[in-house]
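A quick aside before the break. I want you to see a complete sequence-to-structure record at least once, exactly as it would be stored in a machine-readable document. Don't worry about memorizing anything.
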Amino acid sequence: MDASSLERVFARASVTLSLPALFDQLVVPLMVRLGDLWREGKLRVAHEHMATSMVRTILGDLLRGTDAADTAPGIIVAAPAGQAHEIGALMVAATAASEGWRVTHLGPNLPAEEIAGAAEQTHARAVALSIVYPSDDARLPSEIYLLSRYLSDEVALLVGGRSAGTYSATLNASRVVLIPDLPALRIQLERLRALA
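That is the input. The structure line, written in tokens, reads:
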């Protein structure tokens, strides 16, 4: 429960590490470890919430610190309806912004029609969804299916996150590009940008 120490660790890391290294070496391992310890009963919910709140603030600051040109390709980043965790989506948003994309981050638990509406209104080239928790949401396959139908064919639908693989049958049946990790996201964003 030492938020100030965690903040100092992040401050030092943000000065010494590049954004990809910060995510790959600190944020992702920290969030995975927190989730594992919580599931094992070794951390209380309050510990996980404190650390998650700190990480959310830091990622939000990173995202606000970027400024893309109006001509940059747009991307919508969200966690679909039923998905309550947004750290993965914030990492995707900050990664896309650092790659020169114009990012609209919508947060967690958003229905397909709202995500599609935002993509249309912002003329987004891609939509990225973060699927973390829960990993067994019966509503998620229909949300993904609806979103893939609502989006125009020119809009790429990228899906990743710790639990994305548990929905692989649904993802493979639609036009979704499964993104296994942030390095793969960077590669996919570069490909999409080259196609524009």
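Two observations worth writing down. The chain has two domains: 3-64, 74-195. The chain has a mean pLDDT of 87. We'll return to this after the break.
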